[in-house]
Amino acid sequence: MIHLPLRRHLVGPIRLAFTLLGLPHTVWTSGVRPAVSCPSSYPFPTSKTISAVNTSYCRRSSTMPSSAGPHVKSRCPQYPGSNIKRLSVPDDKVDWTQKWPEYEPVSYTAPSVLNNPAWADPDIGSFSPKFNTVDGGVDRTSFEGSYKVENGKPLNPCGRTGLAGRGLLGRWGPNHAADPIVTRWKVDVKGAKVHHSDSKKPVLQFVSIMRKDCGEWAIPGGMVDPGEQVSLTLQREFSEEALNSLSSSPAERAKTHQRITNLFKSSGFMVYKGYVDDPRNTDNSWMETVAVNFHDDLGNSVSELPLEAGDDAGQVQWVDLDSSFPLYANHSHFLEIVAKERKAHW
Fold first, then answer.
1. C-alpha to C-alpha distance for 256 and 270, rounded to whole angstroms
2. DSSP for 47-92?
3. Which DSSP symbol is given to 325?
4. Could you say which of 58, 117, 145, 321 is the most buried, measured as most Cβ atoms within 10 Å of its Cβ?
5. Quick one: DSSP state of residue 264?
């Protein structure tokens, strides 16, 4: 993820819209930079029938299987990108309120984080961050509300993960990201919508990237830079990861920018904001995101642009929305909400 000054001017602020929705809009954190990896005031309407914005992965949502425990992927046995094994945490011991005096997880922070890159915090002890507030240039508030701090370190609001430290995440506490979900209708050679043979509902397609770090398909999102508006992050990440705008010629970049701007200035649907069940999460650092759906209803916007994988993506393509398609972290949950909102097949 390379940062270019020109991208700061792609879109304007949406401070008013985010204020009305209760979203933090002052300063956003930066987070993961290694490979593990809308013009002003447009609205983010939510579904009248789906409480998308209030969905939290700290609480079991109605769209999750009843057998699913809290933040399952955040307790994966082996921490990604390492040989570090997590301490196994049973479902009934995840919540911090459950007494577990024997709980002593290994502490791990990746060397790439300990090298003190610009997107990462120093280690606790060498500085004293102000948690649950905007701390200088870093927003350390959580969508999940106020989180506890113990021995100077924040505690994951969704509970134990079996690993202390920061792992691959740059910030102590919440690491904020933004996920643009760009969709279109699947059409036949005559331009008519394709309906699924079972559900009889029209089929949606979304732009998906294959992550280089784990080989899983995902929504092309990324971390919010300090001081960056979420609207800009959404547009920037899609342009860089799905259209490879960083390597385009000036003429191609201008054409792409116009198409993207036209789509991202439309009324996006706020799909989710909150905790992300991410395998990189630890007891002291975790991912949170804002996911917004931008729909190319007529198929004449980004649908006509050639997809090309960017710096964090191995591959990129249009994928049919379907519950059987495996995705990274809790991205399937986001897409299920989109399918229901658009009355499409899932």
1. 24
2. -SS---TT--TTS--TTS-TT--TTSGGG-SB-TTSSPBPPP--GG
3. S
4. 321
5. H
* Closest C-alpha among 127, 119, 86 to residue 222: 119
Alpha-carbon span 302 to 183, nearest angstrom: 9
246 vs 4: CA distance, rounded Å: 9
Contact status, residue 132 vs residue 253, Cβ threshold 8 Å: no
- State how far the Cα of 193 lies from the Cα of 211, in Å rounded to an integer: 29
Token pair 């740059």: residue: 170
Alpha carbon distance 19, 136 (integer Å): 20
As a 3-state breakdown, the chain gives helix, strand, coil percent values, each rounded to 5, of: 20, 20, 60
Contacts of 55 by beta carbon, 8 Å cutoff, 6+ apart? 61, 63, 272, 274, 333, 337
pTM over 0.85: no
Provide CATH code, domain 5-72+176-341. 3.90.79.10
User: N- to C-terminal Cα distance for the chain?
Assistant: 32
- Confidence band (pLDDT; 50, 70, 90) for 53? very low
State the DSSP code for 124. B
C-alpha to C-alpha distance for 272 and 284, rounded to whole angstroms: 22
Q: pLDDT tens digits for 226-240?
A: 767 777 788 887 877
71's tokens: 């933040």
| CA torsion, ordered 193, 195, 200, 206, to nearest 10 deg | -90
- pLDDT of 14 reads 34
Strand, helix or coil for residue 253: helix
Residues whose CB falls within 8 Å of the CB of residue 248, separated by 6 or more in sequence, listed in order? 256
Could you tell me the two tokens for 265?
Answer: 């200035």
Strand ranges, E, within the chain? 106-109, 134-135, 138-139, 149-150, 153-154, 163-167, 173-185, 204-211, 217-218, 222-223, 269-275, 285-296, 313-320
Could you tell me the two tokens for 306?
A: 């050639």
Q: Quick one: which H or E segment has residue 258?
A: helix 250-264
